[in-house]
Design goal:
Helix content: 25-40%
Number of domains: 4
Structural class: alpha+beta
Largest sheet: 6 strands, antiparallel
Order of helices and strands: HHHHHHEHEEHEEEEEEEEEEEEEEEHEEH
Strand content: 25-35%
Oligomer: single chain
Length: 443
């Protein structure tokens, strides 16, 4: 049997729940939590291999509390795509939608409805209320009508009264702000879930194929040239990569240059100049051809130190370590006992190393390119634009004015309301009355 009492109770509970969710204080609290959570994403490295978090935090817990397993378990390694962060965004979006539905939309509808005050007593109860003496209240009412039209007011005129309003667009502002924030959050969530991030080191002459979701080649990125600009002390100041983008058929789509703080945006993909590395070293041993050997980092020797271990005998004995920190050299040669035994300059003459002539022909650098694909970017920018327009409109004050002529008593009664900046409206109303009184004197 259908229980109307239970249905009524359920409706009241649902109403209370919606009221809590759409409460402004809850929305402000959610914004604060989301802001703090976003800050966590800047403090903890994001989307790195799990081993890195164990290396960083197992011996020195983050904030003195969280070791590597805890950081991974709390999804702090990918804050912006974590389940709890997306849940906060969804909760805030729902709160904004409910707030718009329950409060802002009714307020907009109310502002669009004309209120017809018919008696002076009703105007006397308004925030602003004035009464002026007039020998001809009907004529004064007509003068007021013309004056308000010239000032851009929208009017509804009756036989002995009028209603006017201005700045109704300001009522749309809060709705647009809420809608813009919701669109922005949808874009951010979509970008976190469907976006792609990849960092690749490419030496000049090398290329990278970007595949779509079906595994088909979409764009090929080739590095034509890579340059490192250094200051007089030899420190890197700027990195530049000349790129060629090709389509699946090999046709050139675009040739351009990227550098630090000057990325390339093309077909929804953004290419950043992120880093650099030393990829290979050209070594000539005796009369051998130039051998291009890959370099690897040696963090135990210092920051940005690359090197390679080479045997000096056919049987692999008496190895030496070649190390360098710049493509300009010098290349320091260490013996098996970790003692420096020679310094070689790229492009210089051969030097005898453990009885073997060795010459450094060149050092090959590689450009570190960061590729990002974020399908939510248009929504993020669009939402920000909508919220910005709504914020500007929210500054527009909505003013309402009513006037009733009272021929029996020789008076014109005026009353007004304003949703913000009431002081300015209170200063404007006496000026309006003064203009009407001057018009009365000329009649």
């Amino acid at each position: 049997m259908f229980d109307l009492k239970s249905l009524d109770i359920a409706k009241r509970k649902l109403g209370r729940l919606l009221g809590v969710i759409s409460d402004l204080r809850v929305a402000i609290g959610l914004l604060l939590v989301i802001a703090i959570s976003s800050g966590l994403g800047t403090l903890v490295p994001q989307k790195e291999p799990s081993a890195l978090y164990h290396k960083l935090y197992d011996n020195q817990p983050w904030l003195g509390l969280f070791k590597g397993d805890a950081v991974l378990g709390l999804q702090l390694d990918h804050v912006y795509s974590s389940g709890w962060f997306l849940a906060l965004l969804a909760w805030l979006g729902l709160a904004l939608i409910l707030c718009s539905w329950r409060r802002q939309w009714p307020a907009l509808q109310a502002s669009l409805r004309w209120i017809d005050y018919q008696s002076p007593r009703q105007l006397g109860k308004l925030t602003l209320a004035e009464t002026i003496a007039s020998p001809n209240p009907a004529a004064t009412l007509g003068e007021l009508e013309q004056l308000l039209k010239r000032q851009g007011w929208t009017l509804q005129v009756q036989a002995d009264r009028l209603a006017a309003r201005r700045g109704v667009a300001g009522r749309v502002g809060p709705l647009l702000v809420h809608a813009g924030l919701v669109v922005l959050m949808v874009g951010a969530a979509w970008g976190s879930l469907a976006g792609h991030r990849q960092e690749q080191f490419l030496a000049p002459g090398r290329q990278l194929d970007l595949l779509n979701s079906r595994g088909d080649n979409q764009i090929t990125v080739a590095v034509d040239q890579f340059e490192i600009e250094r200051d007089p002390a030899g420190r890197p100041e700027q990195f530049r990569s000349a790129l060629t983008l090709k389509g699946p058929d090999g046709a050139t789509l675009k040739q351009t240059e990227i550098s630090v703080n000057h990325p390339l945006r093309f077909r929804g993909i953004t290419l950043y100049q992120a880093d650099w590395t030393l990829a290979a070293i050209g070594v000539q041993l005796g009369r051998s051809p130039v051998l291009e050997l890959p370099l690897q980092t040696f963090p135990q020797l210092g920051d940005q130190i690359w090197g390679i271990v080479l045997p000096t005998r056919p049987d692999g004995s008496q190895p030496v370590l070649l190390s360098l920190s710049s493509e300009q050299g010098p290349v320091t040669v260490f013996s098996a006992e970790a003692k420096p035994i020679a310094s070689l300059v790229p492009g210089g003459e051969a030097v005898d190393i453990e009885g073997l002539p060795m010459r450094i022909d060149n050092v090959l650098t590689a450009s570190g390119i960061l590729l990002k694909r974020d399908p939510g970017v248009p929504l993020v920018y669009g939402g920000f634009g909508i919220a910005l327009v709504g914020g500007v409109l929210s500054l527009v004050a909505t003013r309402q004015l009513w006037a009733i002529s009272d021929p029996a008593n020789g008076r014109l009664h005026l009353g007004g309301l304003c949703n913000r900046n009431l002081t300015a409206f209170a200063r404007e109303l006496p000026v309006l009355i003064s203009t009407l009184q001057q018009a009365d004197q000329t009649i």
